[in-house]
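As promised in the previous annual report, we have extended the structural survey to additional targets. Below is the entry for Putative lipocalin.
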Amino acid sequence: RQTRHSVRLIGEFFEDNKSKMYVMTLGFRPMFSAKLIFAVEDNICGVMKLQSTTGSITHYELQVRNSSLQIILYRRCWNHFSKVADYSRELYYPQCQHLVRLGI
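The corresponding structure token record, generated without further manual editing, is:
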């Protein structure tokens, strides 16, 4: 059985590449690197490549600012994501939209 853990993370951009960052714990233990590999105008959505510090594990994330807005731009991100990712898993929950309305 898998157990979930909650960990606070911080990111630090690469000095020579502002589209890439190291993500680490608050104790500065490196976890993975994240690189923006695709984005649409106004950064409504984008595709991130997440790679473990050893480089042995790679994941892709489709990140959307607000999935109820600008569906045409979102579709462009989805098309790019589907080209690079081997599989997908939805991490959106209905309460997310409620949080957007509250401004959280």
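The longest strand covers residues 30-39. The chain is about 20% helix and 40% strand. These points will be discussed at the next consortium meeting with the crystallography subgroup.
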